[in-house]
Amino acid sequence: MLKLGMVDLCTSHPGSWIKIIKEMDDVEVAAVYDDGGVRPAGYAKQFAEEEGVGLVPDSLEAMVDMVDGALIHSANWDIHIEHAMPFIEAGKPVFLDKPMVGNLGQLNELLVLDAKYDGLIMGGSSVRWAAEVQEMAAQKEEMGEIGCAWVQGRGDFFNYGIHTVECFQGFFGAGVISVEHVGDKGGMDVFRADYADGTPVFYVLGSPASPWFVSISAANGVYAKQLGSNIYPGLIDQIVKAFTSGEAPLSLEDNLECIKVALAAKISRRTGQISYLQDLGNDESFDGFAFTEEYAKMRQ
């Protein structure tokens, strides 16, 4: 039995994910912990009672011996590493919910930790592993040469926008070299991400339409899919497989490229210039503390 620990119950993800996990064989959520960053005091015990979770430790350190791996769900991405460290140091696998981190310094810190410790580190968006995205990825060879792609998604620029970036990376993988802001209207921002092989991906953040949409123009036709609402099972399946086998579905460096893409997009939107991923510095970031403060007000 794979025993999972859920850390920080800030968002809707823990409540949605645990229902899926309960339907899986040989896996359970054995313990939950919440630091009170978004939810009121005592929420972890309430959640545990409602969902039938047996253990509610008083600290992350106490949770380490209770579980085989941890899911870090903090809305504040700036504390993801801090809350993952007890598990990383113990050599246990961790999953960092999207966005994994919000700056290049922490991104590089994760890569160092991944090399230093035995435990697996992975994370990111459920959209990357959505059935529709993976179905399209399986068709890539039959598509022939790909000319360009169009991807759109809703929500804010980073916390939700990262889903859209991971959507096209679920199809193309890593390899983006630059991002350019090419226009905005009606609250939407349009970007072009260029891959090393010359493939341009046009993507929209802040779309008023609810679902994600992907269109690939290729030599053998136009391939398009609109994602459904049931996007969590694919990612949870990948987490369980990785925690069980000790093998992540993709390298941590490739997993984290979406953060670099988002940072480059932020710079390009501000400067009006093409932003190259190789030129990113530690001075650019997304503020997880500020986001969580506003998020907590919204939830309350």
Low-pLDDT segments? none
Percent helix: 25-40%
Q: Can you tell me the number of structural domains?
A: 2
CATH homologous group name of the largest domain:
Dihydrodipicolinate Reductase, domain 2
CATH topology of the largest domain: Dihydrodipicolinate Reductase, domain 2
Report the end-to-end length measured between terminal Cα atoms. Answer: 36 Å
CATH C-level name of the largest domain: Alpha Beta
Number of strands: 12
* Class by SSE composition: alpha/beta
- The number of helical elements comes to 11
List strands and helices in order, with pairings.
Elements: E1 2-7, H1 13-21, E2 27-33, H2 43-51, H3 60-64, E3 69-72, H4 80-89, E4 94-97, H5 104-116, E5 121-124, H6 131-138, H7 140-143, E6 146-152, H8 161-172, E7 176-185, E8 188-195, E9 200-205, E10 213-218, E11 221-226, H9 232-245, H10 252-271, E12 275-276, H11 288-299
Parallel strand pairs: 1-2, 1-3, 3-4, 4-5, 6-9
Antiparallel strand pairs: 6-10, 7-8, 7-12, 8-9, 10-11
Helix pairs in contact: 5-10, 6-8, 8-10
Keywords:
300 residues; alpha/beta; 2 domains; five-stranded parallel beta sheet; globular
In words, what does this structure look like?
The chain is an alpha/beta fold. It folds into 2 domains: 2-102, NAD(P)-binding Rossmann-like Domain (Rossmann fold, 3-Layer(aba) Sandwich), CATH 3.40.50; 126-284, Dihydrodipicolinate Reductase, domain 2 (2-Layer Sandwich). It is built from 11 helices and 12 strands. The strands form 2 sheets. A 7-stranded mixed β-sheet has the order 11-10-6-9-8-7-12. It has a 5-stranded parallel β-sheet with strand order 2-1-3-4-5, with helices on both faces. The protein starts with a strand and ends with a helix.
